[in-house]
Amino acid sequence: MYIFGASGHAKVIIDLLDSTDRVQGIFDDDPGIPRLMEIPVRGPVPEDFIFDQPLFIAVGDNNHRKNLYLRFRERATFASIIHPSAIFSKRATLAAGTVVMESAIVKVDSCLGKQVIVNTGAAVDHECRLSDFVHIAPGAILCGGVEVGEGSLIGAGSTVLPGLHIGAWVKVGAGSVVTRNIPDGSTWIGNRLKGNI
What we know:
Family: Belongs to the transferase hexapeptide repeat family.
Distance between the termini: 35 Å
Order of helices and strands: EHEEEEHEEEEEEEEEEEEEEEEEEE
Shape: globular
Protein name: Acetyltransferase
Structural class: mainly beta
Pfam families: Hexapep, PglD_N
Number of helices: 2
Strand order of the largest sheet: 6-9-12-15-18-21-23-24
Strand content: 25-35%
Keywords: Acyltransferase, Repeat, Transferase
Radius of gyration: 17 Å
Largest sheet: 8 strands, mixed
Domain PglD N-terminal: 2-70
């Protein structure tokens, strides 16, 4: 596969693949990055380049990842990755470009959209719905029936109680406990809403 992004998140993705032989090439808009983990970085994607292998967008920022997806979707298919140590229900689904990292859990009837990150040790319980470009950070827990809107970030070590709705482009701070629905574009820190982003 090809990888876009030559940063720490890309290192994690390459490590998940367990072999640099699976990486056809790395692209990044910064032409000053020559190599990543001993793999040459090709620089920006040429305008006329057609991806002949699946592309994985290895960018942690949700908005940036969305913009890159929109930029490349007409000329690429997108790879998805589930680490062997993850527990991913055979009755859960995920869309293209999504990654489920080491020791993460995705339970029955959960649905993960496009370009979602379920990070290390995160837990997505039964019947959760994660929209496109969501990031569930390391150690975060979504209890059953949680809905997370497009582009939202659920911070490291946070917990979202059952059946709640998290709006689009929400930020939940690390270590928070979410006890009620959160409207679009808001920030939740600790145990309360802090307002709009």
